[in-house]
Amino acid sequence: MPALHGNQSIVRRARRSICITGQQNLGPAYGVNTGTTVITYLAVFLIQNTQNRDGKAIQLKLDELIKGVEGARTHLVNLESLSDEELEALQEEFKRLNRSHDKSGGQK
User: Fold this and answer.
1) Domain ranges in the chain?
2) What is the value of pTM for the model shown?
3) How does pLDDT run along the chain (108 residues), one tens digit per residue?
4) What Cα–Cα distance (Å) separates residue 95 from each residue in 60, 90, 91, 98?
């Protein structure tokens, strides 16, 4: 899983807070008790923590591969720090490169 941008992380936390608050307020009406809410929250936290660790490990491995390949653009190592607009521009650049690669029959 790629590293989250600041906005994505904030949105994810807000959604989680809204869900938990809603469950606490509506839970008794639907037979859901506070214990279930706490267990659910802890399970979600554990899963997200594991995914974040896995994402960081994968990112570090990819960074190492990029640095080790001659001719690779090493500035791509810090993509997670780019803004959404910069990522969109980079994605468009790769689409253009892919189209030109396809048109040339896969030849460099």
Assistant:
1) 6-103
2) 0.44
3) 455 555 567 777 777 777 666 656 665 566 667 778 888 889 999 999 888 888 888 888 888 888 888 888 877 778 888 888 998 998 899 899 888 888 877 655
4) 25, 9, 6, 5
